[in-house]
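Ticket #834: bound-state structure for magnesium ion.
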Amino acid sequence: MIDFVQNTLDGLAIGSAYGLLALGFTLIFGVMRRLNMAFGPSILVGIFAGAWLHSHWSAGMIPVFLATLAGAVIASAYVERLSFAAIRGDAALASMASSFALWMQLEEAVARVFPQRTYAFPTFEGLPMLELGPLFLRPEYLVMFLTAAALVAGLQVILTRTLFGLHLRTLSDNREAARVSGVNVAQVALLTFLLAAAIGGVAGFLIAATDGQISTKLGMWATMKGLIAMVIGGLGSMRGALIGGLALGVVEAQAQWYLGASGREITTFALLFVALILLPVGLAGGAETGARAEAGRRL
Amino acid sequence: MDGYTISVLSNIGLFAFLAISAWILLIAGEISFGQQAYFAIGAYSGGIATAVWQWPFAAGVVIAVALGAAVGALVAWPTMRLSGLHYAIATLAFAELTRASLNVFTYRRDIEGFATGPDGANGFGDIRWVYEAGIEPGAYLAIIAGCLGAVIGLVALMSYGRGMARLRIVGEDPILAAMQGLSVTRTKIAAASLAGGIAALGGALYAHLATYIEPAQFSVMTGVHALAYGLIGGLGTVLGPILGVLIDIGLLESLRVFAGYRMIVFGGLVVLVLIVRPRGLLDEPTMRRVQAWLRR
Amino acid sequence: MLEIRDIKTTYGKIAALKGVSLDIREGGLTCLLGPNGAGKTTLIWTISGILKAQSGSMKLAGEELAGLKPHQIVEKGVVTVPENRLVFPEMTVKDNLIVGAFSRRKAKGGVEEDLESVLDRFPRLRERANQEAGTLSGGEQQMLAVGRALMARPKILLMDEPSTGLAPIIVEEIFEIIGKLRDEGRTIFLVEQNANLALDYADHFYLLEQGHVTFGGQPGEVDHDELIARAYLGARKAS
Ligand SMILES: Nc1ncnc2c1ncn2[C@@H]1O[C@H](COP(=O)(O)OP(=O)(O)OP(=O)(O)O)[C@@H](O)[C@H]1O
Ligand SMILES: [Mg+2]
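RESOLUTION: The complex was predicted; output attached.
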């Protein structure tokens, strides 16, 4: 029982990072109605920028964090320009394929510059292990969880209280209506993209700082986790992205503990498959509104 | 032809099966990230049939195709009502489930004093039927080309009849297609089954050329590549996905200067192509023009 | 010819049709009028099998249609010209028409002849036969959708608001086509908001309001102006 609770706790922490990745995906999908396969690899660029700063200049946590964010945002801007802004509005498949091509490109570029298999990433040193009765909580996990919560709260404020948030919401509800109501669609889309990249960058930083080492596999890993968490939670809803991330984290942590690595893979994907069939609207439920459902259907 | 050319051409041919498989589903309006699962199913079942059960090669290929088609239909049945992104992720989940299961799948028999058969993550070696039968690489390339030709012929036959048009209209607008009297479910299941069979055929051929296969070869990366080939080569004709494979493997293998930067160059090329031609090089309008020109 | 009895259809918890009964008579134009959101499209989609009725029956010459799949219903000869999603935009006009004949299991032959007769009927489509359907004007797309439905050799033609979004002069043209089809003795079920125009052509009409049929009769039988005005009051868009 203690094990189960402990796993749940760990799973929720990792899950909050998944949730952030899914949130980035959701923002982009909501506004673009297209899938950004290069989301994870953009984050990868950021993480390696951070690692570079760390190893060459032995930079501290804060510069590394900023470098990670900057790298992710710049790489994302590159993806947005080439795979989204430059491609005709109704060609969702083309954007998907194009962002996949950029994924390959970014990943190989990183691999050329960083030829070793793994690199060190700075960790949160000196933070004490937290004890809650019989339970333990790694301090990194607490940081992860709190950062995710703060980010979600901040995002909520942006979305509901600012003009940019209003524009973003109109855009993700009905692109055409937003356009004719005078929203600068191209600009809001780019900003949303960059906002998503920044959120992804934070998630990437937290994950890398928890593990202490990074490899080029992280790009694919981040795209997959974010995509899966978004879909489990229900397309296009913030709450759904978060719930999906947390659920994925907990399931993985439990399966890892009770069944081992290969058991975890089998269980996670079997559950994902069954969940999609039984719960096609996602965990956050709720009927999708017309335009959004149609976009999900047609992609 | 020298050995190197033969091996490059064989690789192109084998990937073409996977690319055509993903392309068929794209035409039917579904994105599959998981066709590599059927490639794996074909490779493993074909390999088991010849290496473990000692069946003849042709029987191994037949069983692989049959299994691929059957599993394709079986998976399509519950996932059919999902759509778009949900379907894509369901296929991804199924493929990863297949790969993860193969990681723990062990089935070894004593063949002439050696333990032979899949051994989980260690893979499955000694699929030697083709070598023991003394088939030269050139002859095997001819077999691959023959099978690919048969697949292309089948699709051509479907285009001549109504099969391809059915897939296309179900893909474009399932509700309007249903209003034209088409069974959307049946069409989609048929498409998935066909796609599964074609990928499995490629897998079986691949296993016998490589002689060694392992679960890690059938990762998401393989499947996403297969999907991208059709989108780059063009959705207008079955030659589109083949062109995609040709560009990726062929062009870049022949231009060795790009070695090491292959993905950077290929990726850039793809991005440019898609900006100019969102539905790939051989897209529908192009194919209509070609057809009109041929008819003259 | 088609007897609809007590059909109930819901979207989740929202009841859109709350027990609809009406008859579509053979060889005539039956018209269904009603304001926005009355449930007209829902009824069409229910008859064509895209939506499942919760209860009720739909009998085509005595044969039950409720519970059949959309393609089976088309095979029985009930063919729909939908609202808004009219054509397969990436296919040529000619291919769109040929698609209409896909359901003809038994009478596979004669597709070429039917194609010719549809193109004769709509000369504008003939001119654009090899053009992508998505490039046609709204009125032309409507004609194409009607032509495609005719390719199925329908026993009953269901048409959902063929006048939506078209200029008045094009609407006149579409209605002339519908009138001609009626004069040829075809059975047509027409859903419309444009009450005045529709009633000029209808043999019989029903009024649908908030999921209920509130009136059924023949044009001229009663003073329907008042009836319709009441039904549409405040609910009708400028047309
Ligand atoms: N997908 C849906 N989910 C939930 N409710 C729906 C859905 N589609 C339609 N409705 C509701 O069902 C009712 C009937 O809609 P329907 O489209 O049948 O009206 P209509 O008579 O065709 O209107 P119009 O003249 O505007 O085309 C409306 O109240 C509408 O809000
Ligand atoms: Mg309507």
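RESOLUTION NOTES: Residues 49 and 70 of chain C are 4 Å apart (CA to CA).
TICKET STATUS: resolved
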